[in-house]
Write a structure and sequence with these properties.
The protein has six helices and eight strands. It is α+β, with helices and mostly antiparallel strands. The protein is elongated, with a radius of gyration of 29 Å.
């Protein structure tokens, strides 16, 4: 049985076929030791590549920002700058204190609770509460902006050596 060299993975003097069979190992080496060492090397390299990717993304993001670009298309794919977003959420635990501190009547308290089981921010704004009450009743979640990269169709197959 011959093994196609293109179907082998080589690392650390080890050759493994696509079924996980060790085809070659360093002479005199224990197969388990070499495989374990190779796994650790892969894990270290993966962390290194992830750090490099993060740094390159940061560089691309800064360069796009400096050039005033929000979207870039290249043969390697598309980069799109996604802005940070802020969304409000209700804080039901604050309702009793707000009702007491601002001496709201029961109708207003009921209107607050009727906005939804989680205090829907849009509905709370519709019932005409003062801004200072809204500040106490609503919180905010901030989703950081990020750079989205979309590889072109078929790019992953090409990079992986597919047809």
């Amino acid at each position: 049985m011959t093994t196609d060299i293109e179907s082998l993975t080589f690392i650390n003097g080890l050759a493994v076929d696509e079924d996980g069979v060790i085809v070659e190992k360093p002479q005199g080496a224990d197969a388990i030791e070499v495989v374990m060492e190779s796994i650790v090397l892969c894990q270290r390299n993966q962390k290194g590549w992830e750090q490099r990717e993060a740094l390159l993304r940061k560089a691309l993001e800064k360069h796009m920002s400096r050039e005033g670009l929000r979207r870039v298309d290249t043969k390697w794919g598309r980069a799109i700058q996604i802005d940070p977003t802020v969304s409000e959420f209700g804080k039901p635990e604050e309702v009793p204190a707000v009702v007491k501190d601002y001496e709201l009547d029961p109708a207003h308290e009921l209107a607050i609770y009727m906005t939804a089981k989680t205090l829907d921010a849009r509905e709370l704004r519709k019932i005409g509460l003062a801004d200072e009450m809204l500040v106490r009743l609503l919180g905010q979640r901030v989703r950081a902006g990020h750079l989205r990269l979309d590889p072109p169709a078929g790019a992953l197959e090409v990079l992986a050596g597919g047809d």
